[in-house]
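Page header: ASSEMBLY MODEL / three components / 1065 residues total.
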Amino acid sequence: MVKHGRTSDSRSCPLMAAPMSEITSEVVEAHGLSPEEYDRVLHALGREPNLVELGIFSVMWSEHCSYKSSRLHLKKLPTEAPWVICGPGENAGVIDIGDGQAAIFKMESHNHPSYIEPYQGAATGVGGILRDVFTMGARPVANANALRFGRPDHPKMKHLVQGVVAGIGGYGNCVGVPTVCGETNFHPAYDGNILVNAMTVGVADTDKIFYSAATGIGNPIVYVGSKTGRDGIHGATMASADFAEDSEEKRPTVQVGDPFTEKLLIEACLELMATDAIVAIQDMGAAGLTSSSVEMATNGETGIRLDMNKVPCREEGMTPYEMMLSESQERMLMVLKPGKEAMAEEIFRKWELDFAVIGEVTDTRHMVLEFDGEVVCDIPLGPLAADAPEYDRPYMSMEDYIAWAGISPMQNRPDTDDVGGDLLKLLASPNLSSRKWISEQYDSQVGADTLQTGGDAGVVRVHGTKKALAITTDCTPRYVHANPYEGGKQAVAEAFRNLCAVGARPLAITNCLNFANPQRPEIMAQFVHALDGMGNACRVLDFPIVSGNVSLYNESKATGGGSAILPTPAIGGVGLIDDYDTMMTMPFKNEGDAIYLVGSEAWATPDPERSHLGKSLWLSEIHGRDEGRAPPVDLTLEKNAGETIRELIEAGLVSAVHDVSDGGLAVALAEMAIASGLGAEVSANEDYTAAAWWFGEDQGRYVITVPDTDAFNAQLAKGTRDEDTALVGFRRLGTVTGDSLFGKSVEELRAAHQSFFKDWMEA
Amino acid sequence: MKVRIHVSLKPGVLDPQGRAVHHALEGLGFSGVEDVRIGRLIELDVADSTTDEALDDMCRKLLANMVIENYRIEKLETA
Amino acid sequence: MKAAVITFPGSNCDRDMAVAIEQISGKAPLRVWHGDAALPDGLGFIALPGGFSYGDYLRSGAMAANSPIMKSVVEAAGKGVPVLGVCNGFQVLTESGLLPGALMRNAGQTFICRTVALRVENSQSLFTSRYEKGQVIHIPVAHHDGNYFADEATLDRLEGDGRVAFRYAEACNGSRRDIAGILNAGGNVLGMMPHPERAIESDHGGSDGRALFESVFENLSVA
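Prediction written out in full:
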């Protein structure tokens, strides 16, 4: 560490004296800054940065913190509705759920760390998203996740799946937050780059929501939680090793999660939040102390001064550079009201957590760090955050993209004469198999408020009320790849559908936008057009985006897989059930119930061009063909079909509801049968081929069962409200009866459904 | 004084973890592995005046579960 | 009758246990912190909840068993105060010596969360009098270390004395003789891996756990 001489103006002079040799072009490159970005640093400071400052710029201007490739397009997403209390920009989104209560939620990626060390990578991903939510004053009530793995026969994949699932469970189970839903896909495009997206939903009182704006000049800045170690100082490790005096050992690059400490941190923070001591609070996320302190001061339009000697450290001899870049877990930064330090400290000591006043809020609009009595960093906040670089990366038009991706209408559509046989194969395939092996490793019941798992959405009660929150995660990456615009719409629409299916009113979504290298115009096209589709769907469905996360550069050639992942804009949807006694579930209920398909009325008029076997799982699993176009999404139909379903549920006219998605109608019926043990007799539609009717993946559809057809018909006879609701059609499919479906016993279907994970894991 | 406490499962107590690792080793092609038992190593840095009785006590009270585990105390000569 | 739920750092079913006790007894239990030196006076029932006390670090329940409050719990149990330990609470009870045996990693290595069938083996105890002997009930489990171990002599003694309260009626975690819950010699301490407090209302998907609490409170109010 270069020591600077003390001068009367400690704010700038010692820094000016930094030797020019410290920052070479190699050091700049090792910090991931382009030459242009480094020029921008020079301009912002009016001088050369020292290594601490360079490290801070590199973190704040990373894609992860600055959203420099995505910001321009994220701005176009709809983020408002009367029930939105806080949209993107804070730790998590906040929506009003009535009675003075709010739901707070967000989804975040932890892709790369999970590939390197699946257990810890996934575990710390869960820990991070939990902190984002309880930071805002919410008690976390549910976890969800969206996972994408490569092909199961990839040599690393079993180990990755086992590690990720154990890590998610290991963390969530220990902190005592139930994991109530999730989705898992397998595709070779994720062979070298799996995706681990974790979501947390919490509940808070609307008058006890905490934000990150550091205000009140002179207010103390407090560090709580675990000590800071040298975890996760990766990209820049080489540079720091050259630079640090004690570079004797290699730095760990994988953060290790400590769910026990997180549990204590939740309890301690919520206890302190019940008092009036906190001005602002922020979790130390991926970029640790750097991003938390910069964001707090930026949001407060103030400045920040930290004394690095006071930062609780786990290891001896840590430098300010290491402290600022450390990704140690389970840490938070708070601004307290003056005079509240002792009371706050007592709470954190009781929970056996570190507590240290490490600085104060200033009016300088600068971030100033002191160490051993020297100023070791002095950066104006503007360039770090609000004025960070922003790129308008070139992207292909939809037309050019479709041509580039080689997407064209299906030629030569195969049919089937063995629906039952095809169904068994589909149920046993990785992407449609039962997820029980995964879900049973998560404690889905802790809190004793879980009402539903394993259906279209997870449902948890709002403790002590009749209200319940429905949660779902959705995305169909193969559709997004085939048509980013329709695929973006579809991800949002499916989340909407899953919430309606359990009787919830869809309120808002969070997203986790996983894409490959945005510097490639075709990847940027996926991103821009998918966002366009998502935005449109959100607008039509009144389903705003209140929080999210972008993960770019998800590609790898290392393991023989595809180099870029499929575009995967994962959606986490949240809906509200006012009275959970009306909650709907998926299993068949009673022998004799009538089964209907709810979908587009247009289907009543035959059209061979309709039905989407293109990009269907039937086509790929049975015929090994990955062809055709993604199914289009009619958003007006989606909205009205969803509303119709909710009305039927509310009126008590249906006994089971299930959305139709991957695998089409046959798979939806099979899932309802397997979940109940009851079979069904169903008839085909002569106007369509058996394959198209049973396995097509057309959107906007639900299967419902009706116990009292007279009452149901009486309701339908009342007619439609307007031409939009008239888009929704009903078709009788058959009856719940017996113990078989398509000539296969329900037991046989269940065995097939559970075979994939069982066989794979026991192999 | 540095002390190492080796905690291991008593003979006869099934060790599912050890069995899984054994299976994995065989899967990797290592033949001739007769058995795998997984234990725990705890390193203590204690005052030089700490008695053997005190160390024993630590093991019996907390560090090992005498129902299923054995322990062995190894004192390292400090430089 | 005063009931208490003990909270250790890392307990996470303490609220659920308190809710269940309140719903069934009509009275909210006292909440006791692990660091408290003594239990409140005049307790009639003590519950050790599930969770991950001390992160399950070292061994599940090991550090909680050595926390200050457990001295008082052992003392109270010795005087005949009913003590229920569920999941991590069961692990604490074996680690503290109130119950014999130990709970090891599940035979399948993974955490298991699902509703399992249990057979009631003893319907004469303070905790199980509302059940029928041989009755099969459904209660959720959620644990990583639920594989009950004791030597053959201990197992024989438990069986002989009617101290096996519940047995798994389906494969679960590799427990010796499928033991899911056991009583102490005095019959006033019950440890079990399944979570009765997660099965007390139909919204939980089943209410077979209710009778356990009803047994306790009925027997206590009569006593």
